[in-house]
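Input record (one chain):
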Amino acid sequence: MTQRSLRTAPVGLLLLAGLILLPCLTRAQPAPTVLTVGPAGTYANIQDAIDAAIVGQDTHILVQGLETYTENLSIAGTFTSGSLLVWGGWDSTFTFHNDDPEDTIVDGDGDRVLDVSIGGGSFEMRNFALTNGVAEQGAGVIVIPAGNAMVTLKNILVAENTATSATTALGGGLWASLSGTQQLTISGCNFFLNQAVSTGGGLANAGGLGVVAAGDSRFVIEVTDLAENHIESSGAAISGGGILLEIEDTAEGDLFDVIVSGNTGDSGSGDVQGTGGWWATSDSAVLRVERLGCVFNAGVGDDEGPQIVSSHSGQSTLRMSETGIAQGELDGLRLEASESSTVNLVNLTVADHVGKGLDLMRIGGSATLTLYNTIAFGNGVNFSDSGTGVNTGSNLIGIDPLFVDPTELDYHVMAGSPAFDAGDNSPPGGLGSTDFDGRPRIADGIVDIGIFEGLIVILIDGFESGDTSGWTTTLP
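The corresponding structure, as predicted from the sequence alone:
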């Protein structure tokens, strides 16, 4: 029925239509089935409650906190529809919960802690610590879903898990393989002291977490820390001390508000590719990186490598902005754009590396590689262009930006900085939505250079006596 016929329809017909439609509009959704686990719950073990979930329905499993559950959890491929939420931190009455993930521990006791292989529907795990897992891949968590499955990990601590194999060890904390239209969300998580170790000189990748995404799949990693994870092999080249991402076909990935710090790699006679992170896009894949902090990632002994290695081919796209890379052992960012790929780097701060801060390589006549609004300072070599045709604009390369205190990792700039109001408001790839602190990207009409927007100004209004009560900190 067209809009005109609705306007001219008899009142009786409109009322009848309303009566027919009203039940559909107001029908209540069935409440989820609630199962409880713990000393005061219906089930003693988490897996028993998972096995009781009914396919096609919505189930919430509330797990009592202040407990350690020695289990190896599995969400099987037979779960093909409906939703399953496993939620830790609940009190003995199951009416209040604590969001501290260390309040509810799942101990793998030398086997994989969590296996998510659902065939469809959605699975979410919230408020747990997953520890003491051992497996060749995904010692803490492995995610290999099927169908149109959606998997979410929220507020999870993944700590002290080991992926180990004589040949290929992948994902000490987490390993995920996505395809089709599957989706993975990792939000508010912490990957700490996990490792991938090849005992026979094979591959050892993704000490903290690794994601391989193909087809039309998508992943989001946000507000997450990857700290002090490790990769090790006696012979092969190894990649991604903290994080490894491989994206192909038309898959997409988002990496927002992530800190990668203190991760390490030990390769024996091989190379460490990305002591902090390694990622690659191919085909028509897309990777978006905003507000990434990458510091203190290093090789062990004589094994040195860049903090981030980034490789892009086919017609794939990388957009990286508001990213700080500082104080690595050798190089900061080593990036290669080849074939018909497009890479836009916007508002980076790369500082204090013994080797190269930015090592950018454009390979092939049709690849696009741009660098705008970026600070590179205090590195052995601030900027290296190993290819041809890198498009640059409004950068501070080798010019002192007047950082506040690099010794304390404070890379804000002080008053008088040449970074202030000196950027390009319309760089290739566009500006980020906010700066690294989450403040609006443009404060005074023209964007600043580097990861932060605005100056920190201390106004001292004649309080020579030492009374600081009148001091004001202004953040534009």
